[in-house]
């Protein structure tokens, strides 16, 4: 597994990097998953330290967690415990997902844009109805089943996931509703 361990405006020592590699490796190995890489970022939020970890699995799924504490090792342990809980909760589903899939998850490229908010314009009316693009990025759109998309949404703790439905190839969206349920948008089924 490839590790990328870094700090935002804080120094990360060799001892912490070794600790992170050993503990994350042990956590992932416990569930017999095949991770491809892990990204761990430490940062400061007021008086607390924050650890954000993302683990990419060979099945194409991603697990993410975030931990906070006043000490850097405690922040990492909090984050690792959350990852452990996610992976334990989805262990059976992750294995079943991998067993049914004969090829790795395919990703299509796409463009992602960040549009200016109302605050950017101030009280003035915009000159046109076209939104002002302030950033453009590349994004990956996975080709997965609806069940896999919901699992990815929950694993990554995201609010929404755009994916290509593996059954019919159309673009679909799953999202977390305010009432806690999961919504699914499939434009193909409109009349």
SSE map:
Blueprint (H helix, E strand, L loop, with lengths): L1 E6 L6 H17 L4 E11 L2 E10 L4 E8 L2 H18 L1 H10 L5 E10 L2 H4 L11 E12 L1 H10 L4 E6 L5 E6 L5 E4 L6
Parallel strand pairs: 1-2, 6-7
Antiparallel strand pairs: 2-3, 3-4, 5-6, 7-8, 8-9
Helix pairs in contact: 1-2, 2-3
Polypeptide structure, described:
The protein has five helices and nine strands. It has 191 residues and is of the alpha+beta class. The chain folds into two domains: 96 residues, Double Stranded RNA Binding Domain; 85 residues, Sigma 54 modulation/S30EA ribosomal protein, C-terminal domain (SHC Adaptor Protein, 2-Layer Sandwich), CATH 3.30.505. Strand 1, helix 1 and strand 2 form a beta-alpha-beta unit. Helix 1 packs parallel to helix 2. The termini are far apart. Required for dimerization of active 70S ribosomes into 100S ribosomes in stationary phase; 100S ribosomes are translationally inactive and sometimes present during exponential growth.
